[in-house]
């Protein structure tokens, strides 16, 4: 039996709403400027399993211990949260943060009840991050969407314990999948232009040190150009611009991602 939501006012513009023993938390009205929420079903059908595989590769490089606290920023439909769950050998705390309400509701509804995650609906830049409390932060295929990345990295750095991990996967510069999408878009194609070098430089400016890197490759193989267009349309930002009709996408395209495991200097 599902209980009625319990709602706890926080201030004039926010609320704490608990569903199912507080595994899902709404902190403020949802905002989704990139349009991911309205395409959640298509995104899940077309991209979820593919992106979860990237998350699993990233999770394999994490040191996960019982009782740790991890936060996944831009969690979307929860692919990285699931990857952490499947990798961890002991119970730990995992929080997924995203501002797209439909995406995060989808993540909460699909989660394994034996491994409850806490989902927070809020812009990560407006989240009141703690100081030196988190063991790790992850970001799966999201940093290229952040216009001004320095404030986010500073918040993450402050929230991590000394020795804490920041692990992320991002589209590699020159990714064939991204180049293909750019050719399909109507209007300026700047959606994925905030590349790995810019993120890498900002990471070092913040004070992080890079512990390890890897390259992840996979291939999307579909039956037709129409199927590839449907896949592109499932991705929020590009789909909101519309697709060109005079360019036919290939049915097969490679994806290339950089996996980065960085850490805050110091020791636990």
UniProtKB/TrEMBL annotation:
Q: Does the keyword Methyltransferase apply?
A: yes
Protein's name in the database: Methyltransferase type 11
Q: What domain of life is recorded for the organism?
A: Bacteria
Keywords (A to Z) from UniProt: Methyltransferase, Transferase
Under Gene Ontology molecular function, one entry of this record is: S-adenosylmethionine-dependent methyltransferase activity
An example of a Pfam family matching this protein is Methyltransf_11
Organism this protein belongs to: Sulfobacillus acidophilus (strain ATCC 700253 / DSM 10332 / NAL)
Enumerate the InterPro entries for this protein. Methyltransf_11 (IPR013216), SAM-dependent_MTases_sf (IPR029063)
Residue ranges of domain Methyltransferase type in the record: 71-167
Does Repeat show up as a keyword for this record? no
- Which sequence ranges are marked TM in the entry? none
Entry's Gene Ontology BP terms: methylation
